Amino acid sequence: MTMSSVKIRGGEVFLVALPIRRPHHWVGHTARIGEGYAVLRLDLESGIVGWGEAQVIGTWGGDHGTRYGETPAMTAIAIRDFLLPAIAGQNVTEIEQLHVRMNRALRGYPYAKAAIDVAAHDAIGKIYGLPVYQLLGGKVREGVEIAHSIGIMDAPAAAREAAEVIAEGVATIKVKIGVEAERDIKVVAAVRQAIGSAGKIRVDANQGYRTWREAARVLSTMEKYDLIYAEQPVEGLHAMAQVSARINVPVMADESAWSAQDVLEIVRRNAAQMLSVYYTKPGGFAGAKRLLAVAGAAALPCDINGSAEMGIGVAADLHLAVSSPEIVLAGTIPITSTAEYLVTKVAGHKYLDDIIRQPFRFDKGVLHAPDGPGLGVEVDEAKIAKYRIG
Ligand SMILES: [Mg+2]
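ok -> structure tokens follow
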């Protein structure tokens, strides 16, 4: 191994917007998915490249403004002007050292750092000829059971989409709620009626209920539709703990859970009993593994979740999920299709095309991690050029 084969030269950021199957809305989210995400190509001196992706959304953040939204343009500036200069010339295999340097150069911006962390792992995997899951500890399972997210839509449309998704082999439906009590209950009832007793239903309010009393009332009413858990009903750990104390279904933290320290606080307050884990919120695989270690120590089951990843991000989700024993719940990972290969018509189908050549194997509701070196995906640079917006 020569130094030039591991030395970081620099990189390029592409802002990419893919065509979408349908708009996907949740409480507080007014932009459309795929409006533009940041894609990073990390270049080594040797010519080896690594790819990363950050699904940033300006209107999605943590509790009470403690974690900010990022727009794609902000992420591009963070990467180009601060983070890449901080790691240029460094050894790509020294992941912890790269994070120390990035954190010194710019506080926060976990999504930008996650794109770099994932691109670095992709490059390391290519150097050693190993899939990323092998770098993360090896596989504890072959793939991830997929949950399909029903965005905010009316009850008949939600019922129709849920039935189509179950027919395509996905067993868990995630219903977006947090809009208005009676509307939310009506939609969950319609979905339960459409899928019968076989499918599982989880709900996600995206902090939407104004008070914990309102959230507790709505969720208690919904219990008769057999919810497996309720994600982020309210904003802030105090309110989350109040809801947790009053309903029978487990509460999952998403917007409240970004870092290992957040998980410690959630456990201390019993604010949630499950966690929604992304590779982006903790700033990449390195931070995600720390978060998962704390979650595992506290026996909090986790899912893998995100914000409508494109192909590079889906690959990152899969490598993290299959190498993490703490991730036992079905995850809302998109099921990638391309313009050339349609894998599912509705289930997990977010985009009409993608920036990778080969979709992932989807079988009996499970999406499989690819086995090639690095992320195991071949990025289609012609598609990046086609869908580039910045
Ligand atoms: Mg969520």
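The chain has two domains: 3-129+380-387, 135-368.
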